[in-house]
């Protein structure tokens, strides 16, 4: 988080003092290359599947996909023009927009499945824990991948909804890959994990006690694809083509789970058995401002942002 | 025989073979320990897979193009970064080192900049160059430069004053003195700097790829980690270690060639 704040502050400083680098799209073999900042996770399966199916090529676009470690790089990357389009979670973008970074969400990426206990993210506790529901998380030590982000906001909401007091939960920052072991060794009382680590933790004997995304909204948009206002203004046709192809890819991923599992073997290093077991997210084709509104209100309650998010500005 | 070990070729070869044997035994010991810990239950095999399993995973990767592309990216970034740092450090080191006033003037700045850890520059690198190879180079050059620069300064300062005065008496110009007096005295220091810089450059190359996500072994490790593939993570770490050994061996060979005439090498390498 500190890195994120530092990076964001830096971007703001850069924006106010100097002009940004150009994000001009390059043309080659009749195809226009778009630079995409992505992450090698389950969430971006539709993007890779869309390339595989030729949806982008059909519209004259070639994707140059770079793996980044998270929003802390994706957001400055898009602002500076290193990436034309990137992948990030909705919370980070709402925060960035509140800091007046000129970003626009153009496509949905992943959303909650809306099924309690069958979502791609959830809160797990060690075997034999006294915690049996979200309410019991009050006053406990809970691991999230980034403090002050979508994890702690939605977990607090789950606790509140179950009638518990979210105020004195002690959130600790921990990388997702470290969580299954930390839960098993009881270094934390609970952890919010996403796939494939959710399945790994459950296989190791952990128990799922809350579906924090579902509790927030049944179709909660968790992550999205976004670009900069500058790119949109300079390449309106290109952005439109990307949106069309991306929506097609999302629809294809949504209706072909076996294809999603196949494409995961190509850009991640997940074990094939694990890929068969994990729960897939929803890959919606449509943007979902309604669920973002709910998330924004929770963020305001948590003090992540000062005022209601301006979603008309954030969404294209 | 033992008394003249330093000068006898047979003894030198014997000592070299002995050292290699000891080194191999050390590695073997580590591997046995690594294999045993998860097997006897001292470590959880899910989080520390036995050495043999990791070796099989690594063996499988050695046949794939992705692995070698990653190794290529890492070696390219390392070599380029080290070359830039080396060139800059040698030029600046000789210029500033041979001008005592300038050296005194810059010492405090150098001492201020030198301890800044290269990883602290990661946010800056991302802002400036994104995930481009240039952000890796920024970190690598910054870290390796100081290692070499400081050695060059010491080397230049270590020139024997009598030799220098003699050269002056014989009317050697500035360039000639650098070539025949300063360069030979500084060379051993320079090679030490290169060796230190090479190791640091490799560490920073992999770190940058791991944290920033520029292509290479580091990024492969990051992807394996976010896929929960621990076997693969360990296999890639072992590959990175092996690359480090190769780099060190290569630089030492280079050092022996460049300093063939120097007493520190002459004694043992004959």
Describe this structure as you would to a colleague.
The complex is a heterodimer of chains A (316) and B (270). Chain A has two domains: 27-112 and 219-314, 3-Layer(aba) Sandwich (D-Maltodextrin-Binding Protein, domain 2), CATH 3.40.190.10; 121-216, D-Maltodextrin-Binding Protein, domain 2 (3-Layer(aba) Sandwich). Helix content of chain A is 44%, strand content 20%. Chain A is built from 15 helices and eleven strands. Chain A has helices at residues 2-17, 45-53, 55-58, 71-80, 90-98, 150-161, 179-184, 197-203, 212-216, 229-234, 236-255, 257-267, 272-277, 289-302, 311-314, and strands spanning 26-28, 31-38, 61-67, 85-89, 103-111, 121-125, 141-144, 170-173, 190-194, 207-210, 221-228. In chain A, strands 1, 2, 3, 4, 5 and 11 form a six-stranded mixed sheet that branches. In chain A, a hairpin with a 2-residue loop joins strand 1 (26-28) and strand 2. The longest helix of chain A has 20 residues, at 236-255. Mean pLDDT of chain A is 86; it is low at 10-24. Chain B folds into two domains: 14-48; 49-265, MetI-like (MetI-like fold, Orthogonal Bundle), CATH 1.10.3720.10. Chain B is 80% helix and 0% strand. Chain B has helices spanning 9-39, 51-62, 65-97, 100-113, 122-129, 133-157, 161-169, 174-211, 217-226, 230-258, 263-269. Residues 1-7 of chain B have low confidence and may be disordered. The interface between A and B is medium-sized, with 35 and 25 residues.
């Amino acid at each position: 988080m500190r890195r994120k704040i530092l990076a964001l502050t830096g971007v703001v400083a850069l924006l106010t003092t100097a002009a940004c680098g150009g994000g001009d799209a390059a043309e080659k073999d009749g195809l226009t290359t778009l630079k995409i900042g992505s992450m090698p996770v389950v969430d971006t399966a539709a993007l890779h599947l869309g390339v595989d199916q030729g949806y982008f090529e059909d519209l004259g676009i070639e994707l140059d996909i770079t793996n980044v470690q998270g929003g802390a790089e994706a957001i400055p990357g898009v602002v500076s023009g290193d990436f034309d389009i990137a992948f990030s979670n909705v919370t980070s973008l709402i925060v960035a927009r509140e800091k007046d970074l000129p970003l626009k969400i153009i496509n949905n990426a992943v959303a909650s499945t809306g099924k309690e206990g069958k979502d791609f993210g959830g809160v797990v506790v060690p075997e034999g824990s006294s915690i049996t529901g979200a309410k019991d998380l009050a006053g406990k030590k809970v691991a999230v991948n980034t403090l002050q982000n979508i994890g702690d906001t939605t977990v607090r909401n789950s606790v509140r909804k179950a009638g518990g007091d979210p105020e004195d939960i002690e959130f600790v920052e921990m990388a997702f890959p470290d969580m299954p072991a930390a839960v098993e060794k009881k270094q934390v009382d609970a952890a919010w994990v996403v796939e494939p680590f959710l399945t790994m933790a459950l296989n190791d004997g952990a128990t799922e006690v809350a579906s924090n995304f579902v509790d927030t909204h049944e179709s909660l948009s968790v992550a999205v694809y976004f670009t900069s206002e500058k790119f949109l203004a300079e390449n309106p046709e290109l952005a439109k083509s990307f949106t069309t192809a991306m929506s097609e890819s999302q629809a294809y991923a949504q209706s072909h789970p076996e294809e999603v599992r196949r494409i995961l073997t190509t850009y991640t290093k997940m074990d094939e058995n694990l890929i068969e077991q994990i729960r897939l997210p929803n890959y919606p084709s449509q943007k979902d401002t309604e669920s973002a509104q709910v998330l924004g209100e929770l963020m305001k309650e948590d003090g992540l942002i000062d005022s209601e998010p301006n979603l008309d500005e954030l969404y294209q | 025989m033992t008394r003249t070990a330093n000068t006898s070729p047979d003894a030198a070869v014997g000592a070299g073979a002995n050292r290699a044997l000891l080194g191999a035994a050390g590695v073997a010991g580590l591997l046995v320990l690594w294999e045993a810990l998860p097997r006897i239950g001292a470590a959880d095999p899910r989080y520390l897979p036995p050495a043999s399993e990791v070796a099989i995973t690594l063996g499988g990767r050695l046949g794939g193009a992705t692995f070698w592309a990653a190794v290529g990216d890492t070696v390219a970034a390392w070599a380029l970064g080290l070359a830039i740092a080396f060139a800059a450090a040698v030029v600046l080191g000789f210029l500033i080192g041979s001008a005592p006033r300038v050296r005194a003037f810059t010492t405090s700045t150098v001492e201020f900049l030198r301890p800044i850890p290269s990883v602290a520059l990661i946010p800056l690198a991302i802002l400036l160059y994104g995930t481009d190879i240039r952000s890796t180079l920024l970190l690598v050059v910054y870290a390796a430069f100081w290692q070499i620069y400081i050695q060059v300064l010491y080397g230049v300062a270590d020139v024997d004053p009598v030799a220098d005065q003699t050269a002056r008496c014989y009317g050697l110009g500035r360039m000639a003195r650098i070539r025949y007096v300063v360069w030979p005295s500084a060379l051993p220091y320079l090679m030490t700097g290169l060796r230190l810089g090479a190791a640091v450059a490799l560490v920073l190359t992999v770190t940058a790829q791991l944290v920033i996500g520029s292509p290479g072994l580091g990024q492969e490790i990051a992807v394996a980690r976010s896929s929960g593939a621990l076997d693969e993570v360990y296999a890639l770490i072992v590959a990175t270690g092996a690359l480090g050994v190769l780099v060190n061996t290569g630089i030492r060979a280079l050092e022996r060639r460049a300093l063939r005439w120097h007493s520190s090498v002459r004694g043992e390498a004959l």
